[in-house]
Amino acid sequence: MPRFTVHVRDEWLTVPCRDSSSTIRWLGQEALKRYMKNKPDDGGIAALKDARFVARRCQGLGLLDADDTIDDVLEDNDFVELDMFCLALQSICLDGNSLTSTDLVNLGRGLYKITVSHHPNTLDGLVYGITTGFGKFARTVIPVSKLKELQENLVRSHSAGVGNPLSPERTRMLLALRINVLAKGHSGISLETLRAMIQAFNASCLSFVPEKGTVGASGDLAPLAHLALGLMGEGKMWSPKSGWADAKYVRRRLRRPGLALINGTQMITSLGAEAVERAQAIARQADIIAALTLEVLKGTTKAFDSDIHSLRPHPGQVEVALRFRSLLDSDHHPSEIAESHRFCDRVQDAYTMRCCPQVHGISNDTIQFVLNIINTEINSATDNPMVFAERGETISGGNFHGEYPAKALDFLAIAVHELASISERRIERLCNPSLSELPAFLVNEGGLNSGFMIAHCTAAALVSENKVLCHPSSVDSLSTSAATEDHVSMGGWAARKALRVVEHVEQVLAIELLAACQGIEFLRPLRTTTPLEKVYDLVRSVVKPWIKDRFMSPDIEAVHRLLLDQKVWTVAKPYIDKYQTEYIPESRPVSPTAFSLESPPSPRKRCRHD
């Protein structure tokens, strides 16, 4: 009987199929039944008959038609992803002040519907008093009788983006963020328009938004114009039922006012929110993966001594060292691998292992800096002009300029790239028998088998590509709109390439995790610490040991998915938390710039290489 593994939100579910002539719709519904059965609240799904989803093959992410038969499009043991839409009973109430990057990413995933907390200022009188053109035509007075035409022309002419469309998830984020900004009440939007946008979001009726075309000032004009164009009933839109179709068939026509819909930094910020959330997730898991590699390479924990890091108390550095100790402390988690080389004559390890707190640490601190910028930007009014109801006037300003998120996302790319750069060097050490004391490329019968040889090449290629992508886009500026917009942020490219860098980092660390687990096979029957054994077990639940050469890409993809779902962090976090809880601090002075809770001291009794 063929079986399929279906990913629903945060769970992998095995679905047996007795009749291969069943459809993809049947497979999705069967997976949802199992998902709902395991949840006390049915997983937030109101009714199975109302559940809507898009199915994709995990390998290649190719869309599967709901009416296709399983036999025609899937093979036994295939992995399938279900993208859910508007299944949650709960809603997120947007007020323009309290949305977080985590909330925004969850809205993109379809985990919540949207409501607004109050009625923002509609101010039709003031909006209709803005009767000039824009950009170079800002001094051209437009008759009030032609205001409707002006607004429509504005959206149509600015819909000039090119390239592939944003994914439905990212378009949902863009739309949700635009609604959040409008809900602040300084945009002059009509209540009718805002309600229509919320209705479109909750129904997952999403405009075709090309990913290229913004220079990041005056806001993200082209992407937001495409977002508004679909809401006007023009161009193309996507919905779970129709796929891509003519917007007038997906959405009833929506008009006015154009400028309030297209001016702002929401494209940069929504993509930036995803980038920083994924960067934070992979940075935490990078510490766990590096700790496992250190075990396989028989490294020492002495470099993670808390006294060392208290003398250079950068928060990220101190936190990373603490995580290493919580995973490797022999007093808390005895390791047979550590005991096997406890009395070796090696004094210190390579930089790629002993300098992890310093290298990973600055990545963590930079991610936190960027997260603060993005969360501020998420709840900022970035329109122009700004409408002030209490003063009864509109004022032109420069909040639309994308320099803040653009610069922050350039920093993010540089910082998170370093996690892949140092990881690739650890992969080299794992694969190189002169450095690891393990079989070459982590496979028996070398020559007949190539093992991880080309997996390491893939990691090197991704790291090299990142070096180009890390060149800052925000150092560039080209004058546009006949020199009216004479300095721009190039934040759209900063956001898109930051996402690519983060994805490459995830993939490199997936390769390191695979390699480290393969290295464990050659150290058996010795066992590592309890938390790292749990990580090993997690990986082996989706990828079997490498006995001889086989198709490797699916293995990398499966472990990449574990990292995307933060499964590695979920497995290790309880041990990290418990280590901190059980620690009794020594009475010694603490630097005022360190964490308020001093990090535990390193193990003294059974430290590696003593």
For the record, the CATH class of the largest domain is Mainly Alpha
> What is the alpha-carbon Rg in Å?
27 Å
Give the low-pLDDT segments.
123-129, 253-257, 586-610
Specify the overall morphology: globular
Strand order of the largest sheet: 2-1-5-3-4
Catalytic activity: L-histidine = trans-urocanate + NH4(+)
Family: Belongs to the PAL/histidase family.
InterPro entries: Aromatic_Lyase, Fumarase/histidase_N, HutH, L-Aspartase-like, Par3/HAL_N, Phe/His_NH3-lyase_AS
EC number: 4.3.1.3
Please describe the topology of this protein.
Elements lengths: L2 E6 L2 E6 L7 H14 L14 E6 L5 E2 L5 H4 L5 E7 L5 E4 L6 H8 L4 E4 L7 H4 L19 H12 L3 E4 L2 H15 L8 H12 L3 E2 L2 E3 L8 H11 L4 E4 L3 E4 H4 L7 H5 L3 H31 L9 H5 L4 H14 L7 H5 L10 H4 L1 H23 L7 E3 L4 E3 L7 H29 L1 H4 L16 H17 L21 H31 L8 H11 L12 H12 L2 H16 L28
Helix pairs in contact: 3-6, 3-11, 5-8, 6-7, 6-11, 11-13, 11-16, 11-17, 11-20, 13-16, 13-23, 16-17, 17-19, 17-20, 19-20, 20-22, 21-23
Protein name: Histidine ammonia-lyase
GO cellular component, one term: cytoplasm
EC number: 4.3.1.3
Model description:
The chain is α+β, with helices and mostly antiparallel strands and 610 residues long. Helices cover 48% and strands 10% of the residues. It has 23 helices and 14 strands. The protein has a five-stranded mixed β-sheet, with helices on one face. A three-stranded antiparallel β-sheet has the order 9-11-12. A hairpin with a 3-residue loop joins strand 11 and strand 12. It starts with a strand and ends in a 28-residue tail after the last helix.
